Amino acid sequence: MNFDDYTNHLPYDRKDKGVRDAYRAENQRLRSEFEKDVLAELGLTDHPKGQALMDLAWENGHSNGYREVYGEAVEMAVLLQDD
Fold first, then answer.
1. What angle separates helix 17-41 from helix 66-77, to the nearest 10 degrees?
2. What distance separates the 2 farthest-apart alpha carbons in the chain?
3. Measured between alpha carbons, how far is 17 from 14 in angstroms, rounded to an integer?
4. Tens digit of each residue's pLDDT (9 = 90 or more) over 44-56
5. Could you give the dihedral angle defined by the CA atoms of residues 56, 28, 4 and 81, in that order, rounded to the nearest 10 degrees?
6. Tally of CA atoms within 13 A in the half-sphere of 52 that contains its CB
7. Residues 42-67, mean pLDDT to the nearest whole number
8. In sequence order, what are the residues at sequence separation of 6 or more whose Cβ sits closer than 8 angstroms to the Cβ of residue 13?
């Protein structure tokens, strides 16, 4: 997984609401794409608890970046994957 694919390249200006809103919308789009890609890589795209796994992984790892969120998801995925 190339974590650089999820980097927001839009400018950020806390004083300009339009620019700030566009930046936040792009962050949300990138996060959604990342979560979709992680679940696909783990074979959990259609798993009913896939989003719960990603929510927990995000909560536990997002302060250290996407790589950490990915690691958290991989560690927890064994609980949802079939043998």
1. 30
2. 52
3. 7
4. 999 999 999 999 9
5. 30
6. 5
7. 96
8. 19, 20
